[in-house]
Amino acid sequence: MSPLSNGERPRILFVAMHHSVHTARWIEAVVNAGFDLHLFPNDPSPPHAYIRGLTLHVPTVTPSATADGPPALAVPWLSTGRRAASFVMRAFRNPFGAARLLRDKLGRRKASPPALELASRDGDFVRTRAVPFDGDPQARVRLGRPDESEETIMALHGPRMLAEVIANVRPNLIHSLEFQHNAYLVLAARDLMLAEDPSCRFPRWLATNWGSDIYYFGRQEPHARQIRRVCEAIDLYSCECRRDLALGRSFGYRGPELPVLANSGGIDVDAAQRLRSEAPPSRRKLIMVKGYDHFAGRAMVSLAVLERFADRLKDYEIVMFSVGARPRARALELKAAGVLNIRVIDLGTHDEILEYFGRARVYLAVSISDGISTSVLEAMLMGAFPVQTNTSCCEEWFVQGETGFAVSPDDFEEVCSRFERALTDDALVDAAAGRNLEIIRSRLDLSVMKPSIRNFYLQALGMPILREGSE
């Protein structure tokens, strides 16, 4: 890759959920692509164990702000062990419960001062740079204006701290991954910097829409105002659905169209296949079910579907993951009553979840809003036939009625009918498995995604696109 005119590598500052596997997999694709990568975390939790090859800007409480002892470090360690991976999966699937657990643990210990480098996967390092903070580490600040959303963030990771990092790093590109926490944070830092210096040239800003960021929250007027300000302020916008590209335009984005790529980054398809059962889907006796029960998730509906077909599921194991409190309680009730053989996965690594998908005949997920839904892609990868609500972008990936079913979250009978077909039609699920694998291999394999993401950033930076075989 050609350097900038001053001989430096292009600097990219990510503002992201640093503990998310999606963030880790996305950044993984550009670690060795010739960029100088930086990351500003949006809360004090540990970064994902797979984060590597970048500089992590760590908000750090100064000694004067602490009553006694050494400075408190916002990110106290970087663990690559199984427990850390399990915690990250828990954080992704049940963020509120995981946040409570993390607060309890951090409240009982003082962290060590930051190391210069923290070891990560494959022998690479995460360089850490302390960002001094002398305020109240427990204080929270609002990210929007009075008539906008009530989203808040710890002052320790707030707009003023981000503004300081932007001023020090001087990135060629700021990339916020997700809107409600990260794009709102960048917008607040931008407001602050321009208020203090109207002549300030704010860096080029790329905002990526995750999941329900606009599709769901854009229907709520306070959020809609804030989303519109983001879309009007950014230089570049990206998303993983054609649907969401149109939504970005409707909220005021006027920049160029970037490639539509899965936000979860690429996946090593061949490695994943080693976790897949050799049995064809028609011979598998496992059903995977997403257990979300929040603003969008409707796992209670999924359980009602399964309960209707309990007699036909006597020989099946039901595995629920990403489980909310209500679905968990109901699932355990059904198990105790002998109605369904349900296993609830509270903590599991990514490989463990893929292995379950690789043993599943059907994947069932009901929600009123989503992006592509990474779980749908994982189901397609591992041969589980997806039955997913049409409030996601799943139809941009599988062939409706042939390699998956997109159903309405408001039509219980339709969900039941499509699930029954997937449960009983052996030819359907076996034929779909091969086709879905090829779709995933052609669009999501690392060999495809790494150069696509590299060129994505070259386009965002206004640099020449590298063709296959070029350096």
Walk me through the structure.
The chain has about 475 residues and is an alpha/beta fold. It has two domains: about 10-250, Rossmann fold (3-Layer(aba) Sandwich); about 270-445, Rossmann fold (3-Layer(aba) Sandwich), CATH 3.40.50.2000. Helix content is about 35%, strand content about 15%. The protein has 15 helices and 16 strands. The strands form three sheets. Strands 4-5-3-2-1-8-9-10 form an eight-stranded mixed sheet, covered by helices on one side. Strands 13-12-11-14-15-16 form a six-stranded parallel sheet, sandwiched between helices. Helix 4 packs across helix 5 and helix 14 crosses helix 15 (about 445-460). The longest helix has 19 residues, at about 425-445. The chain is globular and about 70 Å long. About 50% of the residues are buried. Mean pLDDT is about 85; it is low at about 70-85 and about 105-125.
List the helices and strands and how they pair.
Layout: E1 11-16, H1 21-28, E2 36-41, E3 54-61, H2 82-93, H3 95-107, E4 117-119, E5 125-133, E6 140-142, E7 152-154, H4 159-169, E8 173-177, H5 179-196, E9 205-208, H6 221-233, E10 236-238, H7 242-250, H8 269-273, E11 286-290, H9 299-308, E12 317-321, H10 325-336, E13 342-345, H11 350-357, E14 362-365, H12 374-382, E15 385-389, E16 405-407, H13 412-424, H14 426-444, H15 446-460
Parallel strand pairs: 1-2, 1-8, 2-3, 3-5, 8-9, 9-10, 11-12, 11-14, 12-13, 14-15, 15-16
Antiparallel strand pairs: 4-5, 6-7
